[in-house]
């Protein structure tokens, strides 16, 4: 039976198709305008705003979708014509409906493009170093300076690296060396690019082209690389400086001819991490911190000789020592204190002393800021000395319930159910605070219960909501008023759920969100940006700055970010939170007519029932990594082998050190082991694992399968079955990522459901040993069932009174029958494990990894 609504799509079939064509033409015109501005900005060497890039990408994808839609319409019409049949009304109804839907999106997209004014901004200066005018010819650096200059003149050296702590003066040194070799005629031209963490090839190419006064006409990386390559191969001598490198670079992809016998182009790289060029054939030099004497001399130069005054010298010396020999910090503090009174000096010294916690040396501000800002996790920024700092938490996430005037409020791993009583102070806590794992049993043993919920928003479909923790998300039925909640979709990465977020700031984590009053639409926030999406038929509508879409938030605390939010049950209203403050807004969907209702206020006393609940101290984190943070940066603790699995290639194994791995010929029974590949980032060697928990933070446990190139990998409570495609990067995920108990349901209620320490496959087909603490499980992984769970020493009697009786950190099965390697810290053992018996024995005793695995010398222990 066709309703009037359905008939309308049939009656307006041709009009809807015509409207689509008209809107596509309008979009094309708007796209040409924006693209013209972008081309002009590129010629000026400016950086294109992310929002503009996202809009252009959306416009291109939309145009491609319309082209495909046109093709489908043509096919359907031709079928009716050639078959001499009446039009297919079902097909026309669907196409008409789809055309109208596309018109709405394209019209909105065109309007958004019309709002784009400025498309670019000046490129940032190098983030950490001194300007060349601040360079001091320190005696301790003479040798390094001369060494770099000599290497640049050495015909056998093509690539040079300079590494050292952030703020130590790497950029300044290579800039001064560049000036020297230009003056003495060693090089004709010098070009420099700041690489930074994103290592964006287009941006690097643009910076180099600007230095060379070269106009790049190509649009793709390959076209631009060819132009650069030709320029740098024109017979002149070029020095290319690539500053602030965070990962291995493919110079050929950029267009730098430093290989293939080219002697006229040399490259200098700077990095905090020497490992980034370990596979690049680089001659490197370490730029050391200044000595105390050099630090004091530089500090005096910036402040003045009055620091030698008796009443000031002691404070000045103490402040200078806190800078730890980093010129950028010495200059920053010295300049700030120049001409200040004694109180200012004492205040600065007190700040530095107060930044120490239990004897930990404080990180110096300027040089550590870049690393701190790169951390995605809110919790990771509040860790120090191996323990999570007990920071005050107000509201971290929230979502509107299907029950009128009720909302769920999350404070990390706790939550409460609230009657929020709009426009009054009659709010009432209905349930909680409780642990998330208590109130949402389906989330027990997931990252959402253990680390907490960072962000959430309700759905327009009953008791459904979307929840986020780090880069993971899930769609749940929260079963209001009961504990019959269930996970409908996930856990999975954000870009698995919402693929359009790939390459945006939203792929690594989302701060807050709330659903719109427009069906299936929601607003998601990250930093100063927001995304408007359709979450049900997932597609991106727009990404913009908060103040572009919510003009009322300009000049408020919310313009730089929103920590939590939930939609009210009143039309077009939402509550937004940041720290101890909140605002109630009318968000006026698809317009900029939003306004704040009553101003920005403090949560207390306006939400009386939350008094004594906020701010919370939630500190329980199970993640191994979350417990090893310091001053906003993950502590680079020594790691030996965290996981391993046997390859299908004889005598080869994969060893994992958190987010890195190597492939090893382990040469059983000898010390002739050999590293065949790596160490590399897991994301580099296993592309299918990129943007999953297995790449970052890494693999905790793994074991090989008896079926070709397959293996099982684990990270926290997540696991996956993969084809690892040895010797190639054609790997793929066969099953997962999913929770351990989704893969192996028999582990529910055991110590194995939250994580697994190590594992290795048995010689019995489809069987494997999995270890957690002092227990192990023998399982069949192919027809999944549990065979036994026992204490390690009950099944492996030879491990009694060894370091392995309390736990095994990593393991892999040997290609020799019934043999396996076990690892713990810097020690290992080779055992004969005698399946289904207790006749196991250790072969040669427990030994140190070094020197018994010579090829791992210099690799272990890792700092990742």
TrEMBL record:
Kinase found in the keyword field: no
UniProtKB keywords: ATP-binding, Coiled coil, Leucine-rich repeat, Nucleotide-binding, Plant defense
InterPro entries referenced in this protein's UniProt entry, alphabetically: Apaf_helical, Hemopexin-like_dom_sf, Hemopexin-like_repeat, NB-ARC, P-loop_NTPase, Plant_NBS-LRR
Coiled coil regions in record: 10-44
UniProt xrefs under SMART domains: HX
GO biological process: defense response
Domain NB-ARC residues, every copy: 147-306
Gene Ontology terms, MF aspect: ADP binding; ATP binding
UniProt xrefs under PROSITE patterns: HEMOPEXIN_2
Domain of life: Eukaryota
Hemopexin repeat extents: 507-553, 559-610, 696-747, 753-799, 805-856
Record carries keyword ATP-binding: yes
PANTHER family associated with the record: NB-ARC DOMAIN-CONTAINING PROTEIN-RELATED (PTHR33463), RPP4C3 (PTHR33463:SF198)
Name of the protein this chain belongs to: NB-ARC domain-containing protein
Provenance organism: Rhododendron simsii
């Amino acid at each position: 039976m066709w309703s009037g609504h359905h008939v309308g799509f049939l009656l307006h079939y041709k009009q809807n198709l015509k409207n689509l064509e008209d809107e596509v033409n309008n979009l094309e015109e708007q796209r040409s305008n924006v693209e013209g501005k972008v081309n002009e900005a590129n010629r000026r060497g400016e950086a294109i705003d992310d929002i503009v890039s996202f809009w252009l990408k959306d416009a291109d994808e939309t145009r491609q979708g319309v082209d495909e839609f046109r093709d489908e319409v043509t096919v359907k019409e031709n079928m009716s014509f050639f078959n001499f049949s009446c039009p297919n009304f079902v097909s026309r109804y669907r196409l008409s409906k789809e055309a109208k839907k596309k018109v709405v999106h394209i019209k909105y997209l065109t309007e958004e493009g019309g709002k784009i004014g400025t498309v670019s901004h000046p490129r940032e200066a190098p983030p950490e170093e001194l300007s060349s005018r601040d360079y001091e010819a320190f005696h301790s650096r003479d040798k390094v300076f001369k060494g770099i200059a000599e290497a640049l003149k050495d015909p056998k050296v093509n690539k040079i690296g300079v590494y050292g702590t952030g703020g130590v003066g790497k950029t300044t040194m290579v800039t001064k060396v560049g000036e020297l070799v230009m003056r003495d005629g060693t090089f004709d031209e010098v070009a420099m690019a700041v690489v930074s963490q994103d290592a964006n090839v287009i941006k690097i190419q643009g910076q180099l082209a600007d230095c060379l006064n070269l106009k790049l006409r190509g649009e793709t990386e390959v076209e631009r690389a060819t132009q650069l390559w030709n320029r740098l191969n024109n017979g002149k001598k070029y020095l290319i400086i690539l500053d602030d490198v965070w990962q291995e670079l493919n110079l050929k992809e950029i267009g730098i001819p430093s290989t293939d016998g080219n002697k006229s182009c040399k490259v200098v790289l700077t990095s905090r991490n020497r490992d980034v060029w370990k596979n690049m054939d680089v001659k490197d030099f370490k730029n050391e911190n200044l000595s105390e004497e050099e630090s004091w001399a530089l500090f005096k130069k910036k402040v003045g000789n009055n620091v030698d005054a008796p009443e000031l010298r002691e404070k000045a010396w103490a402040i200078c020592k806190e800078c730890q020999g980093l010129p950028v910090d010495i200059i920053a503090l010295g300049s700030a204190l120049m001409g200040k009174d004694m109180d200012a000096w004492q205040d600065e010294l007190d700040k530095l002393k107060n930044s120490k916690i239990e004897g930990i040396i404080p990180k110096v501000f300027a040089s550590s800021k870049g690393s701190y800002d790169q951390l995605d996790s809110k919790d990771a920024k509040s860790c120090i000395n191996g323990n999570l700092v007990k920071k005050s938490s107000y509201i971290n996430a929230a979502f509107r319930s299907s029950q009128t005037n009720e909302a769920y409020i999350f404070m990390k791993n706790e939550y409460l159910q609230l009657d929020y009583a709009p426009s009054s102070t009659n709010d009432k806590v209905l349930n909680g605070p409780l642990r998330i794992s208590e109130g949402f049993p389906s989330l027990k043993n997931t990252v959402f219960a253990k680390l907490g919920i960072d962000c959430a928003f309700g759905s327009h479909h009953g008791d459904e909501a979307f929840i986020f923790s780090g880069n993971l998300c899930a769609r749940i039925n929260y079963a209001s008023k009961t504990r019959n909640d269930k996970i409908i979709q996930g856990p999975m990465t954000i870009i698995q759920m919402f693929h359009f977020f790939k390459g945006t700031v939203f792929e690594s984590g989302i701060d807050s969100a709330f659903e719109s009053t427009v069906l299936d639409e929601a607003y998601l926030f990250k930093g100063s940006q927001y995304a408007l999406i359709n979450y049900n038929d997932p597609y991106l509508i727009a990404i913009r700055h908060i103040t572009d879409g919510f003009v009322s938030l300009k000049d408020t605390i919310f313009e730089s970010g929103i920590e939590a939010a939930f939609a009210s049950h009143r039309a077009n209203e939402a509550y937004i939170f940041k720290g101890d403050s909140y605002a109630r807004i009318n968000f006026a969907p698809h317009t900029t007519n939003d306004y704040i209702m009553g101003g920005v206020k403090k949560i207390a006393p306006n939400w009386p029932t939350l008094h004594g609940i906020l701010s919370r101290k939630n500190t329980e984190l199970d993640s191994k990594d979350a417990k090893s943070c310091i001053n906003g940066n993950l502590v680079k603790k020594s790691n030996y082998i965290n996981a391993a699995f046997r390859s299908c290639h004889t005598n080869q194994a994969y060893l994992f050190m958190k987010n890195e791995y190597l492939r090893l010929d382990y040469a059983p029974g000898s010390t002739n082991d050999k590293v065949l590949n790596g160490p590399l980032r897991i994301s580099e060697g296993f592309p299918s694992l990129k943007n999953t928990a297995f790449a970052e933070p890494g693999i905790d446990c793994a074991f090989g399968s008896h079926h070709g190139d397959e293996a099982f990998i684990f990270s926290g409570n997540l696991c996956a079955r993969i084809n690892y495609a040895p010797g190639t990067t054609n790997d793929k995920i066969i099953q997962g990522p999913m929770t351990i108990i989704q893969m192996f349901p028999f582990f529910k209620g055991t110590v194995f459901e939250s994580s697994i320490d190590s594992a290795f496959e048995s010689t019995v087909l489809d069987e494997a040993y999995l270890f957690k603490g002092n227990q192990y499980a023998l399982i069949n992984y192919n027809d999944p069932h549990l065979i036994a769970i026992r204490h390690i020493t009950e099944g492996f009697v030879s491990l009694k009174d060894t370091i392995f009786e309390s736990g095994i950190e990593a393991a892999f099965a040997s290609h020799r029958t019934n043999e396996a390697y076990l690892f713990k810290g810097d020690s290992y053992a080779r055992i004969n494990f005698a399946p289904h018996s207790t006749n196991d024995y250790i072969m040669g005793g427990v030994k140190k990894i070094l020197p018994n695995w010579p090829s791992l010398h210099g690799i272990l222990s890792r700092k990742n």
